[in-house]
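User: Can you predict the 3D structure for this chain?
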Amino acid sequence: MTVTVFTKYRCPQCEATKRQLKKEGVEFETVDLAQNPSTLEQLQEAGFRQAPVVITPDASWSGYRPDLIKQLAHQRVTA
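Assistant: Here is the predicted structure, written as structure tokens:
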């Protein structure tokens, strides 16, 4: 399962999301949006308005969502 977290510098929600994913044992890749302006533009065009943006094979969301992270971890265990 590929999970990507799109982050920005000094983003408390981004850091909380990464900590929670690690705590739940979910492996993920991080993309720094400051280093990828075209990706930032694409995410904004897709309707995302806050960081982090988390993209999984089955879902996507923005902001710190511990409820969705727990669901993701549960899917990983039962898969």
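The mean pLDDT is 94. Residues 4-78 form a domain with the Glutaredoxin fold (CATH 3.40.30.10).
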